[in-house]
Amino acid sequence: MRNMYEEALRRRLPGVEERIAEALRRSGRSDAxxxxxxxxxxGVEAVRAAVAAGIRRVGENRVQELESKRGEWEGAASxxxxxxxxxxxxxxxxxxxxNKARRAIALSDVIESVDSVRLARELSKEADRGGMVxxxxxxxxxxxxxxxxxFDAREAHAAEAVDRIGEVASLPGLRVEGxxxxxxxxxxxxxxxxxxxxxxxxxxxxxxxGVGLRGRxxxxxxxxxxxxxxxxxSTMIRLGTVLFGERQP
Length: 249
Ligand SMILES: *Cc1c(COP(=O)(O)O)cnc(C)c1O
Fold this sequence. Notes:
Blueprint (H helix, E strand, L loop, with lengths): L3 H23 L7 E5 L5 H9 L4 E4 L2 H15 L11 E4 L8 H7 L2 E5 L2 H13 L4 E8 L9 E2 L5 H12 L4 E8 L7 H21 L7 E3 L6 H6 L4 E4 L1 H4 L5
Parallel strand pairs: 1-2, 1-9, 2-3, 3-4, 4-5, 5-6, 5-7, 7-8
Helix pairs in contact: 1-2, 6-7
The structure holds pyridoxal-5'-phosphate.
Pyridoxal-5'-phosphate (PLP) binds next to strand 9 and helix 9.
């Protein structure tokens, strides 16, 4: 029997895929954009529905919720046999406290929200100790809003941001695959566009400076702004509401 999330995706996903394709077309891109289904605030049924719909990545913003949901998923999947050990790929997308670094490493396939050098050092130390390499993205704050975490990446601070990203990329145990950012919550399209464009330019600066990034991922775009993000070069969008509906508060 279908769960309510499978029903939601059956109704909503085709339209979202069409909007993604149109944004790619508008910007003259011939590549694809990755999709992270943000399942925070929903049960493990949302994960099941995403995987059944062919979505290979899910996003959670809290370690606690990631732990319980992944535990449920793997508990239910054992025996039935999921399609390979790494489906879905679990992305941590929310602010991570340093004292949860070890748990986050154990639970995440990709940590998208590395928002400070101090956190990066802690993750590096824990990964190295465990003989692991953790895939991460560096979260950058392009708009300069105090409410947003991430490396200060305002235009005037870009050179310093490149240095600090290089510092993180050189740490053992971390594989920095690109950048992640969030735009301000505003109706002003120009502000959103400038934020995403700033993240893309920063990634280009990092690549030009040869700071040791191991990928060119640009995780940007949520339900309210993913088309603008794609037009500005996003390679990975993180969608919750537009796929699953409103979350319970
Ligand atoms: C919740 C969340 C999303 C998804 O938000 P929607 O607006 O529901 O698509 C994306 N990225 C991050 C970092 C989030 O916390």
